[in-house]
Design a protein that fits this description.
Elements lengths: L3 E8 L4 E8 L4 E8 L1 H16 L6 E7 L2 E9 L5 E10 L7 E10 H15 L5 E4 L4
Length: 136
């Protein structure tokens, strides 16, 4: 089971329409939104810093577009390389279906490297799908 999925739906020179799915043990959140490529690049940079420092300092990535707010904080859960990902997702569509979810899931340092690599390939337009952060 992949806990992080990102699928490209459409793009132009300004934004990419993506479907982002985050899965915890008891929760799954899917967001379909237009995001600038720079926000995905920032996620890659956040993962790079986390990986270079072997997770010794927590790193947070935030996506803040007009109707959606996503925050992912990556931190070590223990000394054996288990990584906890804390997710906060808010969707404010204003149609009576607003949503806020806060949950966490665990993965490994190796999966963090995999996510960084897959996102780089995604941003280079070599793939339209990222599936990563498997629990191990």
């Amino acid at each position: 089971m992949e806990q992080f999925k990102l699928r490209r739906i459409w793009e132009d020179v300004l934004e990419i329409e993506v479907v982002l799915t985050l899965k915890g043990k008891w929760c799954e959140v899917t967001v379909d939104e237009y995001v600038p490529a720079s926000d995905i690049d920032t996620l890659i940079s956040t993962l790079s810093v986390f990986n270079v420092h072997n997770g010794k300092s927590p790193q947070t990535w935030t996506l803040d577009v007009p109707q959606v707010h996503v925050s992912l904080t990556f931190e070590l859960a223990n000394g054996r390389g288990t990584v906890q990902v804390n997710a906060v997702v808010e969707q404010m569509k204003g149609d009576g279906g607003d949503m806020k979810a806060t949950f966490s899931f665990e993965t490994t340092m190796g999966q963090m490297d995999d996510l960084q690599r897959q996102l780089s390939v995604f941003l280079a337009r070599e793939t339209d799908l990222v599936e990563s952060l498997r629990p191990e």
